[in-house]
Automatic annotation (TrEMBL), chains A, B:
Domain of life per record: Bacteria
Record family assignment: Belongs to the SorC transcriptional regulatory family.
Protein name stated in the entry: DeoR family transcriptional regulator
Positions of the HTH cro/C1-type domain: 21-40
SUPFAM superfamilies the UniProt entry points to: NagB/RpiA/CoA transferase-like
Residue ranges of coiled coil: none
PROSITE patterns for the chain: HTH_CROC1 (PS50943)
InterPro entries in the cross-refs: Cro/C1-type_HTH (IPR001387), NagB/RpiA_transferase-like (IPR037171), SorC_transcr_regulators (IPR051054), Sugar-bd_dom_put (IPR007324)
Organism: Oceanobacillus neutriphilus
Keyword DNA-binding among UniProt keywords: yes
Cited Pfam families: Sugar-bind (PF04198)
Keywords noted in UniProt: DNA-binding, Transcription, Transcription regulation
Keyword Transcription carried by entry: yes
Length: 316, 316
DNA sequence: AACTATATAGAACATATGTAAAAAAGGAGG
DNA sequence: CCTCCTTTTTTACATATGTTCTATATAGTT
């Protein structure tokens, strides 16, 4: 316990230092002591909570969540977007914007970049500013998905993003899912396809979405998965996918019948990319994200407050 | 005004620096920028009051005053803020900070909280840190006061505080003072209004300001009381008010013509709330506070040294 | 597309702060 | 009154921070 005398002195020093902006040297001179005494007094005042430093901003909460996510899952970066009572659509847009911002700040040195597919990434690309950074090539990470909703296909997103960056893009002229494993094999032997996939596996940055195939899934929406398929996936223990590659609770690849038909990079390959940025919105995806994190596929996560909270809660 | 991204980044840096004790160098490395950027960010954060340094200035003198106030008026707690030669504005801010600090340390178990109106409470709310304590609801204790100075209205303060606590709030969609007692009756019969007032009367904690209607009164400033009104109040022996409820020297409610027009909780109801925290600054309010204490409306008092001294002197 | 104006980041320097070890001061026991 | 021990202060050094000036990037304009 400090004496009142000492307390008074600490308060005085703290005031001169923090409120009046004096240097420790000046304070020392005024009080006729050496500078280290002032330095130590200030430390003591902090220890005894005579000086308290508050960080006061609405973003404090989400920034704390970010830090916890980074520590807990060994992420390079996490960006948590506040939901503040907004509808899922608005939140999704905010997440996309935050993703676009993050990307634009971190794309500097990248020469090659890959992009997956989906509605979240589509929104991200649309939000991306035109900034004419030459010398970048964007690669699609999977093939196309038929004629519906072309604007969310990997190829299309690669093209749009390249346009905004002033760079170029490659196309993967193949379906994301071949009709048979045999057809896939044949397509994979084609140079145009093979070369692009090889390159896609060696990008500096990959931008991916994540999905939960069972809830509000775009794959189901566009007719790629029917109830039977879903039942099959469920039986195999699938909890999520990234670019048609399904994984289980622990993030291990699940060898479904789809797996042999998919034309796109594998989970293994994805894991080897230095910087994989996952962009996710919607609480129903929490379980899928958790599994992907366990599988170590993701280095950077851009997500909404709600998923962030659930991830941390689930992994207590 | 700073963008969301920038504020987020400043908060992140401030957190690492002030809470986690990282050096600027370490932070710079982590974020991939040069050290001066961090130095400048911290300066910016200080300028924008994202970082606030609070010096808890308690001396023998103020602690003694607190103890005496507690004993003499049977208070649960008293917090006396030293004036140390500061201007009234600075003192008011210190009182508001102390109030915010006290509240944040004592709000833990509260599920429902009420808040009155006024410039002191506004400052308190602005000083309150964002801390995301879910499961609390804030209720306004009175209606609104016209179009002027909306930021000090009970409704607005309830909203702002709820935002900082991560909780929810109710609104009282009614004027603080109806044009006639007849209109008041009709409004009071409306479910939306009635229900909120009912709830407001059962909060765990109420945060109130006190005023002296005759000196530097905000009520007069915003045109709610004119000279005639004041004369009338004087004749009735009014020495202060809390939330438009006027009381006399002994703290007894005064049945002025206003009383029947006010939409807000009554002094009786206020007295029944377990923990009523009064936050007051400015010597001219000493008499009003004394009366309120006599009326037993207040359990905790946060005030400046000067009022504290006068209260004790007056009640020797 | 080229230019200018404006902002921003980084390198290098200047200053301020933190800390270990030596010196001095204070205090207790002989 | 001295000696030894403890505590505090100071000196000198190591680090960390703030600042200026230059280089670079960005935005706006013709």
């Amino acid at each position: 316990m400090l004496s009142w005398e000492e307390r008074r002195s600490l308060v005085k020093i703290a005031n001169l230092y923090y409120n009046d902006g004096w240097t420790q040297e000046q304070i020392a001179k005024k009080l006729g002591v050496s500078r280290p005494v002032i330095s130590k007094s200030l430390q003591k005042a902090r220890e005894h909570k005579i000086i308290e430093i508050f960080i006061k901003d609405e973003t404090v909460h989400t920034v704390n969540l970010e830090k916890k996510l980074e520590e807990h899952f060994g992420l390079e970066d996490a960006v948590v977007v506040p939901i503040s009572g907004q509808t899922p659509d608005v939140v999704k847009l905010s997440v996309a914007q935050a993703g676009a911002y993050y990307l634009s700040k971190n794309i500097k040195k990248a020469k090659k970049m890959g992009i997956s597919w989906g509605t979240t990434l589509e929104a991200l690309v649309q939000e991306y500013p035109y900034e004419m950074k030459k010398n970048i090539t964007i690669f699609p990470l999977e093939g196309g998905l038929g004629r519906k909703k072309v604007e969310i296909h990997s190829n299309q997103l690669a093209y749009e993003l390249a346009k905004r960056l002033g760079g170029t893009c490659s196309y993967l002229y193949a379906p994301a899912m071949a009709e048979s494993s045999e057809l896939r094999e044949r397509l994979m032997k084609m140079d145009d396809i093979n070369a692009v996939l090889q390159e896609a596996a060696t990008v500096d940055i990959a931008l991916v979405g994540l999905s939960n195939p069972y809830v509000q899934s775009t794959l189901e929406d566009i007719g790629y998965l029917n109830q039977n398929d879903l039942e099959q996936l469920r039986q195999l223990g699938v909890v999520g996918d990234m670019g048609f590659r399904f994984f289980d609770l622990n993030g291990n690849p699940v060898n479904s019948s789809f797996n042999k038909k998919v034309i796109g990079i594998s989970l293994e390959q994805l894991r080897n990319i230095k910087k994989v940025i996952g962009v996710v919105s919607g609480a129903h995806k929490a379980e899928s994200v958790l599994a992907a994190l366990k599988g170590n596929y993701i280095n950077v996560l851009v997500l909404d407050e709600q998923i962030a909270t659930e991830l941390l809660y689930a992994s207590e």
